[in-house]
Structure formats: structure tokens, C-alpha cells
Amino acid sequence: MNRRSLLKKTALATAAMAIPRLPAAAPKLKLGLDHFAVRATGWKAAQFIDYAASLKLDTCFLSELHVLESFEDVYLKGLREQADRAGLQLYIGTGSVCPTSNTWKDTYGTAEDHLALTIRLAKALGSPVARCYLGNSKDRVGDGGIQRHVEETVKVIRANRSRAEGEGIKIAIENHSGDMQSHELKGLIEAAGKEYVGANIDPGNAVWALEEPLAHLEVLGPLTVCSSVRDSMVWEDENGAVVQWTAVGEGLVDFKAYARRFAELAPGVPLQVETISGFARPFSWKQDDFWGPYPNHRDSAAFAAWVGMSKRGKAIPTFKAPEGPGKKEAEIAFQKAEFERSIAWLKANAV
User: Fold this and answer.
1) Hey, which of 115, 203, 266, 291 would disulfide with 224, CB 3.0 to 4.6 Å?
2) Which residues, listed in sequence order, are joined to residue 32 by a DSSP beta bridge?
3) Quick one: DSSP state of residue 89?
4) pLDDT in tens, 245-262
5) Is the pTM higher than 0.85?
6) Residues 272-288 pLDDT 10s
7) 57 lies in some domain
């Protein structure tokens, strides 16, 4: 190599080193169906899978066991193969596994047996999680408050630790129907063991627990392994505020920011839409007797952010399907429209 060639190659190498390296593109945020969004259909698992596939989604979350027509291996294998052909990842979930909750039912045996069954089904279906929950906001009332139920739920989860770890399944606990605030669910997960337990995050239920969804995400995002999401409208009234869940993009949650931060805090976890719209729930927080279930929350920054949401909101109409022979079809049409608008908004604005 002569001197001129050597100098040329050295100059090119130096120039190449000077070009700044761009960061790798963020992975595409996956979108999915939580089957409860279109519950009025009365479909079973195979039909929900077909519906998710028709919308070109990434996942289908079968969040209640009754949508499965059988727990037999042959049937479960068929569902998994159906989902594989459609390019869908299945997620599976169930209801309460807290034996002291007002929502507890022994349909599937003891709480420990119920969770064990859900873990087995998750393994058979290829779901990375077995989703369950504690209860609802009524469990915050009474002696011991929500903490009494948290402790019982932790016992049930710990009884299934070896099973979950042996199958490679994460137990996903949802913040459900206003039962736990983010710090309480975080404490439950850490007490049970975050090596095999995570959060099924739900920003709509966060609003029912008097939390602003983006702040809620900051607490639970790093622990999140599953999701069920919707938007919320909150507005002031004479007694406090009113909450109505909405399609994504039609409420007060900044879902562009939410989706971006979600992808950062819970990489690889899908946003699975669970629209539950059309009805309003009052929160009479200006009344002193409202605060018993929420000790120390009234003067918190978290509640101030929630009140801030209500000051930006506006009243929206509720939905009730007309009575008569077309009632069910109207409910189905409403639920599909809410879900499909949510997916369209997310595809256009967040993924």
C-alpha cells in the first residue's frame, strides 16, 4: 500500500467515526383485544380469536375462563394453533383469587386451585401470564381495609410459586374495579415476589381508585406484564366528580404520552384494549363519609392530579340500548364501535 492510499483510507475511517450513530428504533408497540370489550357478543374463545385476527391485532386476551369451551388439552391445543395461524399471541386470565373478597366465587375450587388451573391453561395456550385479581372497591371497606385482602391474596399466590416458576408463567395481578391503588398493588407484588408476579395494568380502574393514569403508570409500569386499557372522562358535579370510561382518544388521558411511556417502562408488553363504555359513576369526594376507604389520600398529590382531571373534563351522555328485539344487536354494535375506534386511534397516533 503506497502512502497516498494509506492517507485516503485513514481519512475515510476518521470521517466514518465522526458520523453520529443514531439510536436503534424503538420496537413496535403491540396492540390486542381484551375479549371483555365485546362481551355482549356472547362468543367463545375461537370467535374472539377470529375477531382479533380480522382487525390484524397482535394479541388476544381471553380474560375470563368461561369463554373456554373445555379445559382439555386437545381443545386448548386447537385454540393455540388457531391463534398461531393468525399470528396472534394468546393471553389468559380469570377473576378473583382472594377468598376474603366480596367478589370471590368457588366455581373452580379453592383460591389456590383456581390460580393453579389458570397457570395450567396459560401454559397450554402459550400465554406468558396467568391474570387474576383481588376484588373491587367494596373490599376497601370494613375492618383491616384493603390490606386484609392483600395479605390473603399474597398467601394464594405464594402457594403457587413453584408451579408458576416451573411453567415459566408470570402471575399478573390487575388493579381491578377500584380495589387497589398503585402503591398497594406494588406492595402486593413485592410481598409475593416480583420474580414471578407482575401487574396487569388498567388505567380505567386507576381512575376509579382516584389516581391519574400517567402517574399510576409511573408506579406500576416497571412491574407490568399485561394490560387492559381504556380512556376516561371525568367531570365535576356538586358532590365531587363523575367518571365515565370511553374509547381511547376520546377521554382525558394523553394516550400518545401514555403509549410512549408504557413502551419504555414495560418493553414488549402489549396494549390490550378493554373498552367498557356508556355508563357513569359518581365519586362524592366532597362528602366526609366518602373518605373512610381512602386513608391519607385526600391531601395527596395523587388525588390533586385526579381532581385536576375533573376540572378539564365535561359531561358526556351515557348509552342504553333500546328495549325490544334489537337490544342485544345494539349493545354489540356499540361495544364493537367503541373498541374499533380505540384500535384505529392507537394505530394512527401511538404505534
Assistant:
1) 266
2) 59, 272
3) E
4) 999 999 999 999 999 999
5) yes
6) 999 999 999 999 999 99
7) yes
